[in-house]
Fold:
Amino acid sequence: MNYIELSYFDLALAALLLLVNGALSMCLRLGLERSFAVAGLRMCLQLGLVGLVLKALFTATSPWWTAVAALLMVLFAGREALARQQRRIEGFWGYGIGATSMLFAGTLVTILALTTQIRPDPWFDPRYTIPLLGMILGNTMTGIAISLNSLHDSVSSKRKAIEARLALGDTAADAIRESVRNSMREGLIPVINSMSAAGIVFLPGMMTGQILAGVDPAGAIKYQILIMFLIAGGTGLGVLCAVLGSARRLCDERQRLRLDRLTPQAGR
Structure:
């Protein structure tokens, strides 16, 4: 492969673009210069630590350490999904619904890919498992966060209409069905847009990385198509589980709407 290694000077040169963004923020009084600096520093530290962890994982090739790393990824993804909701379900339920949905969807889709399409030896090889799970979790996390935020906002804004339907004898599931559908639709739009624009508007990250590493473009395209299908499947399954779980939590066994289980409007 014709791999071109980057130096720290190359990275520092690219970081100047972040300084440009910070300068523009100051000139236009956007107030984002601190956010740019913190995000950039956090990204470098996180990726640096991840690099060390992955190097150790790839050397060990242990199913147990791979499982621990995957679980930590899911736990952090659950926290990020929760943080991106303006209104969320109170208590552990708010975190548990999103994290459990990602654990189920991410694990199922990743194992399916490892055992049927990619087939590494051993099948749990962290060199394949961790990057694959990471791509699936990242997109599933976004879909779940958007869909749950939409569901909670919709149910809150339509409270009177939903309670009127309940008073007329509708079940809670029927009364909030429109909100459930709309929230699922919003959560799936990003992945649909990504598939629709891939190859024409932008070259996806995995495909670009493989090409830059010297992989034949035809082979890189096959892998990217596989990844997009896996991401779509994981996102759809995760959004479905999260929305249905949250919708169930917002109603009780007496067919009442329980908005008291939602927190007040929260900042990001």
